[in-house]
Design brief:
The chain is mainly alpha-helical and about 200 residues long. It has one domain. The protein is about 85% helix and about 0% strand. Helix 2 runs parallel beside helix 6, helix 3 runs parallel beside helix 7 and helix 5 packs antiparallel against helix 12. The protein is globular and about 50 Å long. About 40% of the residues are buried.
Length: about 200
């Protein structure tokens, strides 16, 4: 794999990572509710899910997923249900994130890791994304080193992107501003997550 080919792969992965969606909402909630470490844990757990789908594509299993409508639909509905559950949790949160921080109530690292991983693993569109835009690079890299690069690149880019998002959201100045509107943020996060869940169901 040449450097120019890798740049093409990296660009595709960057475009996929920065696209706004439910992952951004989850990172924001954990960065606010638990702090910087929780946001970073959620970010790299999410990246593991992305790397998982990259590996599936490399092994050719994403093709099976695409060609099995029943399996795809089941995973999509599971993902929608998880998004809806997260949304309901946000809507029912009492006092918003600011109240949690003042009372010393924080989400656990396990919750951050779980939500970060599940929001990517339960997204079958990741498999289709890799299948459509990523498989061309799989065909180019047939040696072990190239295959490792193909899997590590989306994993690293996704993790680094959401780490940057977490660092921005958890900076003292930004955190103070967001804490003042914590209840509104919780409610908006809930509405967005439920809306995304409904969109998944409608587009199936």
């Amino acid at each position: 794999m040449t450097f120019s080919v890798w740049l093409g792969l990296a660009l595709v992965c960057i475009l996929g990572a920065v696209s706004p969606g439910p992952s951004l909402v989850v990172m924001m909630r954990h960065s606010l509710a638990g702090g910087r470490l929780h946001g970073i844990v959620a970010a790299w757990s999410h990246a593991l899910g992305v790397g998982f789908y990259a590996l599936l594509t490399l092994l050719g299993l994403a093709v099976i997923l695409k060609e099995s409508p029943t399996l795809f639909t089941a995973i999509a509905y599971a993902g929608a249900a998880y998004l809806a559950w997260l949304g309901i949790k946000s809507l029912r949160a009492k006092g918003g994130v600011a109240a949690k921080l003042e009372k010393g109530e924080k989400t656990t690292l396990w919750e951050a890791a779980r939500d970060g991983a599940m929001i990517s693993v339960l997204n079958p569109k990741l498999a289709l994304f890799f299948l459509a835009l990523f498989s061309q690079f799989v065909a180019i890299g047939t040696d072990t080193f190239s295959r490792a690069v193909i899997v590590i690149t989306p994993f690293a880019i996704d993790g680094l992107w959401y780490t940057l998002v977490t660092l921005a959201l958890s900076s003292p100045l930004m955190l103070e501003k967001l804490k003042q509107k914590a209840v509104l943020i919780d409610r908006l996060c809930g509405v967005v997550l439920i809306g995304l869940a409904l969109r998944v169901v409608v587009t199936l």
